[in-house]
Recover the amino acids of this structure.
């Protein structure tokens, strides 16, 4: 698991996915944290690789490694000969087994074998990583049961594919439509639309819908656009979390900024959160220390997908 721009990504072999691409994650060592999400395997033919996005505790708390971890090139299959295979056992413990690289194959894969006589591959090792000099060298994609050799995707190939995919999701990411409009939750503040920059595509998809919870806001993205909402009845209220959802098959925001303004007349905007919306259509600032605000300012800096952009809800707590 690696984090990039506030989003937790899981790198895994694509053959582990079912037809729907839904994933569940449990971290190790204890105490274990769980998360779920969706994975995408839209890479070139023959590449056993997928990228998943994970939320909940596993993605928000346990996901601490940075994307730069897989972009390193100092430890590669061409530069090192030995390493340790790291994997999680059924009981949750992390195990290491020494391996030796025996065939560098091509620029995408390599083969390594166990060096201890009793070590053998077994079903479930796919996705384990080979580390050398403390850095990941490759991910296991083939582990024939009972064999002493395994095939790996090179880390530099994974890094290239991940970087290219993240750059391209502004054109390619879609997700399933929600089953129903989200209901107001306890602690959620009522909103009033005070200002917006980009006109809606039609009267029934206006940004007022986001304030009163009656429908989506749809617009053509031509550049950064801002929505300003009032919270409370004129008095400043405590704000600790902002959630923006966009879960239709339309294009959706990518880069988002949230500012809060506690002043009576405006003009004192303060940074609250700045992250990217996940491919599944959720931007969640997470619960922060409560700060007073009269206005919530949401700015969409970039989008993912093509065509009209749709935002389904803005929630302030």
């Amino acid at each position: 698991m690696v984090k990039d721009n506030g989003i937790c990504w899981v790198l895994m072999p694509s053959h582990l996915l079912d037809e729907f691409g839904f994933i569940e994650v449990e971290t190790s060592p204890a105490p274990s944290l769980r998360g779920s999400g969706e994975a995408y395997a839209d890479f070139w033919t023959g590449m056993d690789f997928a990228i998943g996005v994970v939320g909940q505790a596993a993605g928000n708390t346990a996901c601490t490694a940075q994307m730069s971890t897989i972009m390193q090139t100092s430890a590669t299959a061409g530069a090192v000969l030995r390493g340790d295979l790291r994997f999680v056992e059924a009981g949750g413990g992390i195990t290491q087994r020494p391996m030796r690289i025996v065939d560098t194959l091509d620029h995408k894969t390599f083969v390594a074998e166990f060096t201890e006589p009793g070590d053998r591959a077994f079903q479930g090792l796919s996705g384990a990583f080979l580390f050398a000099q403390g850095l990941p060298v490759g991910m296991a994609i083939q582990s024939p049961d009972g064999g002493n050799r395994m095939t790996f995707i090179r880390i530099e190939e994974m890094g290239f594919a991940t970087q290219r995919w993240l750059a391209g999701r502004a054109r390619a990411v879609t997700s399933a439509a929600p089953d129903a409009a989200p209901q107001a939750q306890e602690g959620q503040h009522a909103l009033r639309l005070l200002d917006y920059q980009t006109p809606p595509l039609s009267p029934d998809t206006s940004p007022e819908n986001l304030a009163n919870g009656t429908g989506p806001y749809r617009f053509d993205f031509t550049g950064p656009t801002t929505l300003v909402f009032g919270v409370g009845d004129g008095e400043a209220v405590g704000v600790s979390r902002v959630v923006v959802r966009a879960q239709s098959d339309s294009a959706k925001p990518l880069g988002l900024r949230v500012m809060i303004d506690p002043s009576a007349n405006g003009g004192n905007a303060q940074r609250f959160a700045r992250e990217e919306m996940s491919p599944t259509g959720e931007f969640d600032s997470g619960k922060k220390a409560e700060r007073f605000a009269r206005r919530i300012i949401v700015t969409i800096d970039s989008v993912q997908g093509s065509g009209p952009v749709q935002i389904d809800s803005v929630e302030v707590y």
About this structure: The radius of gyration is 23 Å. The mean pLDDT is 85. The chain has four helices and 25 strands.
